[in-house]
Amino acid sequence: MKTLIDSTNALIDGLAAIRLQFSVADQFPAEILAAAEAAAGRLPTEHADRTDRRFVTLDPATSTDLDQAFAIERSGGDLLLHYAIADVAWFVDDGDAVDQEAWRRGTTIYLPDGKAGLYPPILTEGAASLLPAVSRPAVIFTTRVDADGNVHLDGAERAVIRSTAKLAYDSVDAADLPPDFDELSRRIDAAESRRGAARVDPPEQEVSALGDGRYQLTFRPRLRSEEQNAALSLASNLAIADALLAARTGLFRVMPEPDEKAVQRLRHTAQALGLTWPEMEPLAQFEKTLNLSDSRHAAFTLAVRRASGGASYVPYREGVVPWHAPMAASYVHATAPLRRLADRYVVRAALAVANGQPVPPAVSSAFERLPQVMARADARDGQIDRAVIDLAEALMLKGSEGTLFKAVVTDADEHGLRIQLCDLPVVARVRGQGGTPGDRIQVKLIAADPLRHTITFERAG
């Protein structure tokens, strides 16, 4: 969930400034903590016993806020994905103190030096987290995945589960996973290819020390286990989206394709990074050729993320098909309720729909209010992510003032030029006119201030 790793703690002062600038709430008020502690003691009384099913979790090694656990079984030629999601709604009531605080926060904020949770740790890292070897209330969504990767929500139930293992991306062994884990992710990947989906999951960047107070930014390629685990969440979210659409309700995650101007800007970015993008090849097709172990390709995926029109949430509207262009499908967020406010309500709606029950009025009402709340949280999170990257880039460039860099102009407006450095994954602005997209120019680094997370370039003659 972090965009950048800082194992050197080189960013600590700058991160403190970012937390202050964006009013990141590190602590919860005493009354919220007390309410959460009381809620954590609730015993599950409306849940089936599924502790005999072998669920496991797969996350970063240090994660303790575990939203999802999974089990897989065969059903003829189909695979059944039993995806257990933390039953946050069991602990948080509509309108209670914890709920009101969550509506103020919207999401968990992740920074390289820690996180600011959506809910108090006694819930997210304790009573509601699907930790191993303890019984936990969950909502199990069973998704049927056929041989072609098509998904269908077979059912949902509240149940108590007992995860048998907390597996980590960087150390998981195939023997630890359900036998059909690879096959299920293969099917989902194949279905994505047929749909023409173009999910962009940029790798994390990492600050590493070079010595003498110098640092560099490198990319940490996503592990295969991360990609496969993401396929499980994707399958569940797609199946839930279809079920909610059929029931004419829900809250959907939508995202447009990059517009023509953004695609042209990306072509200039590819040029700057030395990537060959055939003129007639669509962006989605070009993305499939990228190798994220190559830092130039990884930098391009970051540019794609920045170039998109931005994702948002929309409630169901009669006659409108909510569309997520990178997924090439209707899509919801339901699998991370410990970290996103909206997911708690989508889970509740899907649980009701799957069991032939009406969606609770409080959930339907929330669907109308959540888009604005989540948009505000998404905007804040995006600004923080950008500030963190700016901080790391400024740290990397500090001490190189006066150095000339090759760059390509990716965009031009009344404020000046937007540039992509050719040899570093840095996007910056240069004041002044006299350039058009696609121009190759030289720029001089004037200043790099990590505390203000700013970089200043000027065009060199």
UniProtKB/TrEMBL annotation:
GO terms for molecular function: 3'-5'-RNA exonuclease activity; RNA binding. One of its GO terms (cellular component) is P-body. GO terms for biological process: mRNA catabolic process. InterPro entries: NA-bd_OB-fold, RNase_II/R, RNase_II_C_S1, RNR_Ribonuclease. Residues 47-356 form the RNB domain. This is Exoribonuclease R. It comes from Bosea lupini.
